[in-house]
Structures are given as C-alpha cells and as structure tokens.
Amino acid sequence: MIKKICLKDIAEKVGVSTALVSYVLNNKKEGRIKKSVAQRIREVAMELNYHTNQIAKSLKTSKTFTIGLIVADISNPFSSSLARIIEDEADKNNYTVIFGSSDESLLRSNKLVDTFLNRQVDGLIIAPGEDAASQIFSLRQQRIPFVLVDRYFPDIKTNYVALDNYKASCSAIQHLVNCGFKRIGMISLNTPLFNIQERKRGYIDALQNSGINFDKRRLIEIDYDNDKMETSVKNAINILLAPGHPIDALLFATNAIATHGLRHINALQIKVPESLALATFDKTDALDLFYAPITYINQPLQEMGRLATKILLEAIEGNTSITQLNLPAELVIRSSTVMDKKYLPAI
Amino acid sequence: MIKKICLKDIAEKVGVSTALVSYVLNNKKEGRIKKSVAQRIREVAMELNYHTNQIAKSLKTSKTFTIGLIVADISNPFSSSLARIIEDEADKNNYTVIFGSSDESLLRSNKLVDTFLNRQVDGLIIAPGEDAASQIFSLRQQRIPFVLVDRYFPDIKTNYVALDNYKASCSAIQHLVNCGFKRIGMISLNTPLFNIQERKRGYIDALQNSGINFDKRRLIEIDYDNDKMETSVKNAINILLAPGHPIDALLFATNAIATHGLRHINALQIKVPESLALATFDKTDALDLFYAPITYINQPLQEMGRLATKILLEAIEGNTSITQLNLPAELVIRSSTVMDKKYLPAI
DNA sequence: TTGACTTGTTTAATCGATTAAACAAAATTA
DNA sequence: TAATTTTGTTTAATCGATTAAACAAGTCAA
User: Is the CB of B83 less than 8 angstroms away from the CB of A80?
Assistant: First the structure.
C-alpha cells in the first residue's frame, strides 16, 4: 500500500505545527487562527489528499463512531431488513455498523460481543438468543450502552424495542375466528424466548376469549434448529392435517416456519383458504407469490430499527434512562384467510 | 461506562513493565520470560478481566483485521446471503466485517469507501454499481487490497469473483428452446453493467444459435430504480403479453425483477407454464412458493463469498497477482418451464 | 511605561498498545 | 578471574491524532 498522508506531512509542507493543522481541520479555535494560514492548510490538505486516521483519532478521543449489530443470522430477511434500516439511521449520525451473526449460539454471541468491545464500539444493538440472559445482564453491569431488538428478557431491565407479540397474535387469531374458522392450529418454536412465548399466550387467550377450547394438540412447538426445520415443519403440518380432527386454519409463528410450511402446503396441493386458511408472523416477498397471498402480521421494522438506533445513540450520549417499547403490529389481511374474495383489498 | 483495564494496570499490579505484560499476553519471547512471572501476569489479566484495546493495537501495528463490504443493498437476499458467507469466512481468519449499502449510487459508494479507508480497513469487498469504474480504478491506483463480487469491469484489471453470466443465460434459453418454447422474452435492466450485458448477450446468442430470430421487442430493459421497479415490471409484462405476438416464455434477469414479475403474473392468474413459462436468475425463497416452482439460475454464492474473501485476504497478505473468476452457474429446472399436469395450480 | 488583554502559534502530554534496543544479573567459557 | 553468553526485564520511541497549557508578540488602557 502507498504511503498515507498524516497531519505531520501537512504541517511540514505548510511550515506550522501539527496542532495548528488539527485545529484548522476540525474547525476549532475558529477566531484565533489567521485566515491566510487556515486557508493554506486546507489547500495543502486537499492537495495531498489527506484523510483522517480514525484509528488514531478514536484512540485519543475514545470514541469510534461504530456500533455493533448482533443478529441471529444476517441472511434472514428479517435481520437484513433491520440491518439496512439501522445502517441508514446510523449513517445519518456518522456512525458505521459492524455486524455479526450469532446463529442463536451463546458461545458465538459472547465471542461477537468480546470482539466488538475490543474494537471499542460505542454501543451494541442485539437480537439476543434464548440463552443470552446472562450475557445481557453482564453488559448491563459493565454499563455498556446497548439496545435489544425483536427479543428481550422481561426480568432484566434493559432498553428494548420489540413487538407487542401478545396483541399481534391475538389479532390474527381473532381474525381467523371472525372468518369462521374453528379448528385453528399454530406451529411455533420450542423455546423460552419471551417473544415466542407471548405469541403462544396470545394464541391461547384469543381462542378462549372467543369461546373456543384450546386443544393443545393443535399447538406444535418444533425444535429450534435451522438444519432440521424443514423436516420438523413438514411433520408438524402432517400431524395437524391428519384425518380425524384436521385443523382448518394455521398460524405460523415466524417467517422461517412459514417459508418451509408454505413450501410443503404448496407441494401437498392443499386448497387455501378453502381447505386450510393460513396466516403468519413477519412479512417476506415469498408471501405474495403463493397463489393465495398470505395474511400476515406486519412488524413495523422501520420503526423498530429507527427507534433502536435512536435509543442507542442517546444512551451513548450519556442518557441513562431505560426505554422499553412494545410496538403494535399491523394485521395485513389477504386471500389466504378470506373465503369471499370480494372483501379483499384490490391488489 | 466503567473504567477499562489496560496493560498498565496489570503491569502495576504484578510489579513489572508494560512491555513484559505485552510480551506474555502475545506469547512473544517465549523462552526468555520466567515461567512464574508469565503465569502471574496471565492470572492477573484474567482476574482484572483484561481485554486488548484493538484500537491502540491497530494504531501501532497498522492492521485492523477489518474488511469493508459494500453491496447495493444489504436487505436484498442476494447481498445478505453473500454477507453471511463473507462474515463466516472472515471470522475464521479473525477478521470482522463492516458493511454499507451503496444503493447503486456513486456518491454513497464513494462516501462508504472513504469512511472505510479512514477506519483503516485492511481491504474491501465490493459489488460495484454501474458508474463505479472511476472509483475502482482509483482504488487500484492507491494499491488498496480489494475484490469485486458479482459485478466487475472488463476493462479494469482487478480481482473479481463473478458468475459466467453469458453461459448461464445461454443455458436457460437453451433449456426453454428444448422445452418447445419459441417466443421467448426477457426482462432485464437498462444498464451498462457488464454482468447484465452478458446476460443479454447470452439470451440473444442462444436464441440465434437455436435458429430463432432475435426479436428486439421481446427484450425489455427497464430502468434501474428500486421505487419504480414494480410499475416498470408490470408494464413490461403487459407489453410482452399483449395480444398479437404474446411471448410464451420469459426470463427475468435479476431476483428483484422476478419478485415483482411473479407477483404480477400471480395477480393476472396466468397459467404457468401452459400460457407462459418462467425462468429467472438468482434463487430466493419466493421461487418455491409460486404454485409452479420457478426454474432458476443458481449462483454458487457459497463459492463466490468464500473465494472473494480468500483472494482478499491473500491480497492483504501482500499477494499482488490478480485473480479473475467467472464461476459456472447451475440451472435448476422446475415446473415453471416443464409442461406436466401434476404441477397444475391447485385452485 | 507598565501591566493586562488579544491574537496566533507551539510545546508537550496523552490515548494504549508494540517492539527494538539497552541493561543488569546470572551462568558459562576461557 | 576475566570475558563472554544467556536469561530476564526495562527503557523509550512509536503509531497519528487531540488538546490543555505555555509562549511570544502585538494592542490597549491607565
């Protein structure tokens, strides 16, 4: 690599001290510096194509203008959409984002946090895995500025921006009930993650509030393993549809479950919504391409990303108050849950 | 934030110099250091929960173990999948990834490169926009280690890892011809981007090699504008299907075009493949959920990410040779291009 | 004329590591 | 015993910025 230009090079060329160069380029001591000198310094900086060495600057100022983003998997559309929003929001404030995927593993997550802290990130945005409570607790104790997104631990007092999962789940089930479905199933995850538990609670409560008995055979919680998920979802659907008491409507608890589920239902050539109504958490492009576009619970990603970043930056600035947000979801109703197409919004 | 522990704290507690602590913690001067002292230093480091300040280390060693990734849009599944692979590959070598989305804008891209270079990234992986040639040229002149992915400029001698777009396109068209389709259309982008041009060239050549006249009315190149893309794609499809000489098969040049196109075709309730066969570049989850799963050109993303990272790290290590790879694509044939009753829509 | 400001700039310490070179004490060789 | 080597550790410069404090020279008021 070619030699880098530093403050000293400019200082020497102009014939002043590096201090003066620094003051000029940072617009400090405005009134005190002779205009002609300041201009000359700026000229030479331009001419030599000077660029600040942020590493040196960060060392001195102990501020890196970097935030660390830890998601389960950056290739998941939920995560990458969020990442994009956070990137834009950070950029507006001159922050850069470094990211890492934890794969829901505490080991990886710990490693990422360590790496990011070693790099002196100013703060963290984390979508924590189910076993990350201790880690989050430790971050809080160390007074590292951070915000949780999407998932959080109700017992630990931290900043978070998440969905009101309970209400979202209720509204989807309520809608299915209103549409006349009675044997409503759900495929969820076998995890203590609070947001997933809330979705379950909403499902059960909404059923019971509608006078429908909660039949626990209709709630299948599959194991949280990316590699086996396709098989697990297939099996779950087969069980739920088995002759005897087949379900007439199904709610998927996550976009990953939905993607596998829809693929299987497509292959089985089940008529949606006539034989089975479908609804899911999370929006993906895929939902539009099913022949009966899928009703879904739309998370306000833009708001989540924007607020998470905003709260983090405020924490970095020294704000020590705790902000906990459960944003409302929007139920987007489409033909996968509505028999009579004339009630659908025009595409 | 709580006071950070530094080398000096350990040195003072043990009663040695910071140099010795540094040697021990970096396993240097192995033979020379008294074992008892080394052990004591390690103990105290552990006890105080010491973590290296990478910023300080980077300043001294001028190595950040960071690579910058610039894609068009991290929320595009192609980009985020690639990002994930690069992340994993980088992680194996103890590198961290910082990322940014250029939105195909040279201005943003330049800003990102500047930001990343100011942060002293060791190298860059870039999916350049159509007007990025000058920027890429400048990076080359500055001897910054970098690798282009997905897109590249044939006239600039740089490292790149991309698809053999020409062959990929040919193989898709050849397949459509073999299946008996004769009026084959393509929706592509109006851009000088070489990879897109190659896809066009493959389309035209493959048609002509099959004895089919290239009818330029069947190739529609829409403008490259994310916001207007949905409308452009709809219009293009309407034109291609207009009574008179409707096409009987259609190739989408990118996943974004495909997503919009499939949505529209779904809404129009066109029978695929009976009335219209469909194939596309790039794989997405969405392709499986169309009632007739879509034939697609599968890019070897894993290989692309892996090789791009490998080549970059070698360049960072000082390797000055140039590697240019056009990887072969795989045509995944499914029911959207194959007439077969069992794939009829289940409506 | 002298002390007190202003203006414009430099000096030098500092951030937290790394590392060549210097140094001291112990061990070995001559 | 003196010279040399080995072992174990410290000193001090350095990376490239920032910034409080010092300094010099000019202006002004009393």
Answer: yes
The shortest CB-CB distance from B2 to any of A53, A76, A142 is to A142
pTM for this prediction: 0.94
Find and list the nucleotides of strand D having atoms within 7 Å of a protein beta carbon: 7-12, 14-21
Torsion of CA A215, A290, A76, A162, to 10 degrees: -50
Residues of chain B with CATH 3.40.50.2300: 63-163+301-328, 165-299+331-343
Strands B249-252 and A295-298: unpaired
Q: Which nucleotide is nearest to B62 (CA to C1')?
A: D15
The answer to whether some atom of strand C lies closer than 7 Å to the beta carbon of A33 is: yes
Which CATH topology does A65-163+301-327 take?
Rossmann fold (3.40.50)
At A279-332, the pLDDT tens digits run 999 999 889 889 999 999 999 999 999 999 999 999 999 999 999 999 999 999
Cβ contacts of B55 on chain A, cutoff 8 Å: 55, 58-59, 64, 119-120
A189: β partners: A222
The domain made up of A165-299+331-343 has a fold known as: Rossmann fold (3.40.50)
Q: How far apart are the CA of B3 and the nearest CA of chain A, in angstroms? A: 9
Contact B313, B94 (CB under 8 A): no
Half-sphere exposure of B113 (CA within 13 A, CB side): 24
CATH architecture of B7-52: Orthogonal Bundle (1.10)
Q: What is the pLDDT confidence band of residue B343, given thresholds at 50, 70 and 90?
A: very low
Residues pairing with B111 in the sheet: none
Residue B136 — left, alpha, or beta (φ > 0 → left; ψ -120 to 50 → alpha)?
alpha
pLDDT in tens, B45-77: 999 999 999 999 999 999 999 999 999 999 999
Measured distance CA(B118)–CA(B112) in Å, rounded: 10
Is pLDDT of B341 > 50? no
Query: Do residue A84 and residue B101 have CB atoms under 8 angstroms apart?
Result: yes
Instruction: Reduce the DSSP state of residue B219 to 3 states and report it.
Output: strand
Q: How far is the CA of A36 from the C1' of C2 (A)?
A: 33
Q: Where in chain A is the domain with CATH 1.10.260?
A: 7-52
Which nucleotide's C1' is closest to A38 (Cα)? C8
For A32, phi and psi rounded to 5 degrees? -80, -20
Does the structural domain B63-163+301-328 have CATH classification 3.30.1300.10?
no
Nearest to A303 by CA among A98, A150, A113: A150
